[in-house]
Structures are given as C-alpha cells and as structure tokens.
Design goal:
Blueprint lengths: L5 H15 L31 E17 L5 E12 L12 H9 L7 H8 L5 E9 L7 E6 L12 E10 L10 E8 L5 E9 L11 E15 L3
Antiparallel strand pairs: 1-2, 1-8, 2-3, 3-4, 4-5, 5-6, 6-7, 7-8
Bound molecules: 2-acetamido-2-deoxy-beta-D-glucopyranose (4 copies).
C-alpha cells in the first residue's frame, strides 16, 4: 500500500539534495529563513510578520477532533499531529504537493497510522515535534494550540514549545473540504512568535451529527514557524 509512493518520495529527496548543492545529503534543518509562504492575495487575516524569519517548515500529519453539540453540528475540540521537517524540500517541485502526497498515504485506509506516514517519508529523524492542545492558560476554559519540539528535534531545550492564540483565520482557498488556513501568535514559550497553518488537506467534520458523538478526522497541513531575528 505504501510502496507505490516510494519512487515519488525518492524523487523528492533527490531533488532536494540537488537543490541544496551540498556534498552531504541533508534532509532536515535546511535554512529557510527567507522562504515565503504562498498566502492568498486580497486578504489581510494572514500576513507575513515583519522583522521575523522562518525557523522551520513542518508537515503536520494527524487528526482534528470534534464533538457533536446539542444542535447536531460538530465543534472543534483540538487536534493531535506529528510535525515533520520539510524545510529541505522547499523550492523543489514536490514541495507544493507534500500535503496531498502525505494525506493520500495516510488516508489509504483507516489502519494507516501517523507513524506509518513518518516511516514512509523518512523515519523518526525527520520529526520536528508534536502539535496538540492544552487548556487555555488565560481563560482556564477551552483549548489552545501548542507546538512542542522538546521530545524530538529540540531535546534538552526546556523552552522549545509555544502555546498560541489564533489571530487570523480564512477558509481554505482549496475548498470547503479542507480546514481553514490560520495565523497563530505565540503567547507562552520560546519556540515561535508566529505559526501559520496553510495548504491544508481535509480535516473537516460531516455537516450533521448525533449529539455527544466524538470524531477524529485525518488531515495534513503545512506549518510555518516564525521567530524574531534576534534569536
Ligand atoms: C484527539 O483524538 C485522538 C484520538 O483520535 C486522541 O489521541 C487525542 O488525545 C485527541 N486530542 C485532543 C486534543 O482532543
Ligand atoms: C504536483 O501538483 C501539480 C498541480 O498542482 C501537478 O501538476 C503535478 O503533477 C504534481 N506533481 C507530483 C509529483 O505529484
Ligand atoms: C493571548 O490571548 C490572551 C487572552 O485570551 C491575552 O491575554 C494575551 O495577551 C494574548 N497574547 C498574545 C501574544 O497575543
Ligand atoms: C526564538 O527566539 C528566542 C529569543 O527571542 C530564542 O530564545 C529562542 O531560542 C528562539 N527559538 C528558536 C526555535 O529559534
């Protein structure tokens, strides 16, 4: 099931190696400071922050969670995802297809796990960290998005996480089947000043549901991490 994607991924990584023009094969940690995300024109909700640089570009592979309200519609109760380093693929032809490629692997059957996708795309060495939700630290109710590299690429750095506020939100330009594109602003932790969720694939719940039902919906997305230049 996974093997049919292998040639494409090999191609992707060969392309990145050629583009990097370094004598060693570099698959993680490429310098993307001056990379620019493809944000839709004609909107001001998502804007590249001035005076900040891109520190990481992650591929999120995981689930969006929902519970069904008494009104019979799903509401978001958080998400859980692995964040894979795709910085070395920036500027290669496959970069813009990565969320689709990863989603097609992930969604090939309900049995395919996040770890299967990690293994197919390069193994644990490409894991930047995890994306999950914590109780909103300001209000004590509801949840806040968190990005945490402490158990993966930033082991030993106690500040390598960020709890963020949602500060920008637009419908996915790719269609209503994909979750919104977001701008998040770091509130607690040193990992990033801003995080963008863009190029989303899937993750939306059905339009109606039975009250109290819980649902996890598979999705992929790009996550762009920005930090101040003074770091
Ligand atoms: C989301 O659901 C998954 C099970 O599909 C669970 O492991 C995870 O803890 C949940 N996370 C949140 C924030 O609801
Ligand atoms: C990437 O996506 C473009 C369309 O956006 C498509 O034409 C192209 O064939 C895709 N490439 C791969 C390697 O999937
Ligand atoms: C995040 O939101 C809380 C209110 O929910 C606010 O007190 C805090 O200042 C915000 N932080 C940033 C960096 O916007
Ligand atoms: C982000 O910048 C802060 C200083 O403003 C620094 O302490 C932190 O290590 C930086 N984080 C990353 C991931 O570079």
């Amino acid at each position: 099931m996974l093997s049919k994607f292998a040639p494409l991924l090999l191609l992707a990584f060969s392309a990145s190696v050629a583009a990097a023009a370094t004598p060693l094969i570099q698959v993680t940690g490429c310098n993307v400071q001056h990379a620019t995300p493809n944000l839709p024109s004609g909107q001001t909700m998502l804007t590249v922050p001035s005076g900040e640089i891109v520190t990481n570009i992650g591929l999120g592979v995981g689930v969006q969670n929902y519970t069904c309200a008494s009104t019979g519609t799903f509401t978001s109760v958080g998400a859980l995802a692995e964040l894979l380093d795709i910085s070395c693929l920036f500027g290669t032809p496959v970069f813009g297809n990565l969320t689709t490629v990863a989603f097609d692997i992930f969604n090939a059957s309900p049995a395919v796990t996040t770890q299967d996708v990690i293994n197919a795309l390069g193994g644990d060495k490409i894991v930047l960290g995890q994306h999950y939700f914590v109780t909103n630290p300001f209000t004590g109710s509801g949840v806040s998005p968190t990005f945490d590299f402490r158990a993966a690429s930033k082991k030993g750095d106690p500040n390598a996480f960020v709890i963020a506020n949602k500060t920008g939100d637009i419908p996915a330009p790719t269609g209503s089947q994909d979750i919104d594109w977001l701008e998040l602003t770091g509130a607690i932790g040193d990992l990033a000043k801003h995080v963008f969720r863009i190029d989303t694939k899937a993750g939306q719940p059905p339009s109606t549901c039975t009250p109290n039902a819980f649902l996890s919906v598979k999705y992929t997305a790009q996550y762009w991490f920005y930090n101040s230049t003074s770091s």
